[in-house]
Amino acid sequence: MRPQRRLRRPPAVATSTYRWTIKWNVATGKETATLKGHTEVVSSVGFSPNGRTLASGSHDKSIKLWEVASGRNVSTIGVLSVAFSPDGNTLASGSRDKSIELWDVRMVKEVEK
Predict the structure, then answer these.
(1) pTM here?
(2) Between these two residues, 5 and 98, which has the higher pLDDT value?
């Protein structure tokens, strides 16, 4: 029998509204950031396992990767929904054409400033 692993409570959760991704502090229940950048409905959000990156997927056919500490958009990838692998190195994306792609997050280029 394997010993049970304790899951750590995340310091933040993310939700979405019409065009924005919102980060919440779990302990206080207060909004900590509104991350703007999508041009259509945000349909999916998820934290990387290490909690340093937040991914958001939108009907504008893009994934945005956000640096959690600063709220800075570090990359944009064109699709709809997102999910990180357990090690945080791979991001799965889905699109309206029913395709799924796997992305090596370590190799994604930074968005132009």
Answers:
(1) 0.63
(2) 98
